[in-house]
Amino acid sequence: MDAYNVKWVETYLLSLKNVTCIMVSHDSGLLTRVCDNIIEITEMKLKYFRGNLDEFVRLNPEAKCYFELSEKGKIDFNFPSPGNLPGITSKGKAILKMTNITFTYPGVEKAQLNNVSVQVSLSSRVACVGENGAGKSTMIKLLTGELEPDAGSGDVWKHPNCRVGYIAQHAFHHIEKHLDETANDYIRWRYANGMDREEEVKVTSIASEEEIKKMESAFECPFPQEDGTIIKRKIIIDRFTERRRDDKSKKTQVYEAVMKGMQGNHWVPRDLLVKNGFEKLLKAMDERIAIRATTFARPLTKENVQKHLNDVGLAPEFSTHMRIGALSGGQKVKVVLASALWNQPHILILDEPTNYLDRESLGALARAIRKFEGGVVMITHNSQFCDNLCPVVWHLQNNTLDVKGDAEWMAEANREKIVVQKMDESEMVDKFGNTVTLKKKKVLTKKEQKMKKLRRAKRLKETGEDYDSDEDEDSD
Length: 476
Description:
Elements: H1 3-15, H2 28-34, E1 37-42, E2 45-50, H3 53-59, E3 94-103, E4 113-121, E5 125-129, H4 136-144, E6 155-158, E7 164-167, H5 183-190, H6 209-215, E8 219-224, E9 230-235, E10 237-247, E11 252-259, E12 265-269, H7 270-275, H8 279-295, H9 302-310, H10 316-319, H11 329-341, E13 347-351, H12 359-371, E14 375-379, H13 383-389, E15 392-397, E16 400-405, H14 407-415, H15 446-463
Parallel strand pairs: 5-14, 5-15, 7-13, 13-14
Antiparallel strand pairs: 1-2, 3-4, 3-6, 8-9, 10-11, 11-12, 15-16
Helix pairs in contact: 5-9
């Protein structure tokens, strides 16, 4: 319940004069203001105290752990490091944002959200608050691509290599079709074939009939020549190779594609592809490329997934040897959290993350969020959780957004540089669990570089491909 509904419940309970009420709650403020007797369950026995919660804690100081997010606890969560992003050197630089977004549900005249702009960086710790029905979950779904904004109202942008982990408000919908499987089985199914199957069902990943028709049509594409001239030809794209590189001269990405009726592969600029209906296909491809970057360091094996689940507090007996349907609500939340974290996200978005979690797990979650190297956005009515973790607040009210924040903290975040952690090659394994040793890239002399360039030009000439001296040479 949001703060307004909690206040209504409080007022109602205090108005009851001839009724006994028994409640179980982690809301310490509510218990202090409403209750005049406390029952503590300890070592399978009940202990009774007269007075409110403040009086109970005064007489039993050790009981503060029930209501505080302590710096230490019996369990700890360990979130994976998200890794670096090309072109992002400051933790305060936006890697996900939406600008001037308006959204209206079908059949409704009034917009649910009007002219909303937000941005998220690696340093973000954001609490999204507001009454139930204010549009918090709707805004998050727009940010993650589960919903599309009204036509012409603005756009949503995400760094092409940015990975986002998302737990929806009704967290269990992620796993409701997998209750007869183990948590380990579910995660390995979800990320099989180097992609996130939850992404496939997003509205922003499914092309419309008009977009499909556009993609199947011919369009004009420039082909740079060795002498600096550009020839334009009509092309139809047959398929993409799922290779992408940066074109620094034009400050954009180019994608390798196979054309119908043409020999060899060719690089096509992103803006040209978007103009011709390929935007959703490119977004899906970007997601696969971003996830693929994590698969070598941590293959999708049963042992790796089991360790990952253990890092969010789900022991092997529950993660690998028990079906999801037999788990408690709190354990299911841990399954959903672990699955969202498997692809090592740069941004973690949590819609009501405190639901179903006990106090010990909440403390572990709070400590993990503090240490996490990526950005976090959360919707929560738990004011204590919000106050402890989030210096920035997105307040939704009357269909508009008000952003409040700690100016000093945000300025410090913008100055904080990203420290790229070197990968420990001694711990790298292949999908069979065998240790892999990476070969160090040889530094070529100027003469060797020249010879390599000549060999490349000769090979491209023999295969009939257009020569591009800036092309990524990793394939050599």
